[in-house]
Specification:
With about 70 residues, the chain is mainly beta. The protein contains 1 helix and 6 strands. It has one domain (about 5-55). About 10% of the residues lie in helices and about 35% in strands.
């Protein structure tokens, strides 16, 4: 089982349970004011989890302004 830090370091491209790269989004992205989340599923072991995204800043014209 991956820790949160290991999962983030893998850029969310591995199943946190079995480490398979056969993962997919299982639902549409949802959001509130500062957070987005998306249900995910592993096609290898059927594990399910939720990816979480937080607002960290903004950019304009491809440059980091935050």
């Amino acid at each position: 089982m991956l820790t949160n830090e290991e999962y983030v370091a893998s850029q969310g491209n591995k199943c946190p349970a079995c480490l398979s790269v056969h993962v997919r989004s299982a639902a549409e992205m949802q959001h509130d004011v500062t957070t987005c989340w998306q249900d995910c599923k592993c096609d290898s072991c059927d594990a399910e989890w939720t990816d979480e995204y937080n607002l960290t800043g903004y950019s304009t014209d491809g440059e980091d302004d935050g």
